[in-house]
Amino acid sequence: MKARVLVIDDDRQHREILAEALAYYHFKVRTLSSGRDLKRVLMNFRPALLLMDYRLPGQNGVELCRIIKKEFHMNEVPVILMSAYPLDTENLNYCDYILHKPFDLDMLIDHVKDLLNARRSASPSGTDQDQPFE
To answer: Using CA atoms, how far apart are residues 117 and 105, in angstroms rounded to an integer?
Structure first.
């Protein structure tokens, strides 16, 4: 089964590039331009990982990450936060990794695979122990 990745970015071109790169590596991808439909998409799509921009309409990525982890009780789902801005790391405790823009797509894919493999290793045996992502 393909791992599901949810991409949240208000820049359409950026979303499309990220979705294409992830699909090339056999990830099942869904995209959003904001956090407006986030709860519905999380419940229906059930992503294994989220990749989101820091600057989003309405709420920033850090706030959305907190909501995902605390209010939606999805603490086991890794979140990669992308930002072109310097961020105060003390306020990023709900994010699993910060990827500074601009970044190399191969580096992004490596981080996605690493976080998913770490999640699989940490899950109870038999629930998420398929082949590692390579």
So the answer is: 18
Q: Which tens digit of pLDDT belongs to each residue from 72-116?
A: 889 899 999 999 888 766 667 789 999 999 999 999 999 999 999
Sheet with 49-53: list strands edge to edge: 28-32, 4-8, 49-53, 79-83, 97-100
Handedness of CA 101, 106, 109, 114 (dihedral sign): negative
Distance in angstroms (rounded) separating the CA atoms of residues 24 and 106: 11
pLDDT score of 52 more than 70: yes
Query: Tokens at residue 64, please?
Result: 């959305």
Which ranges constitute the DSSP H helices of 1-134?
Answer: 12-24, 38-45, 61-66, 105-122
Question: Which residue is it, tokens 């979303």?
Answer: 15
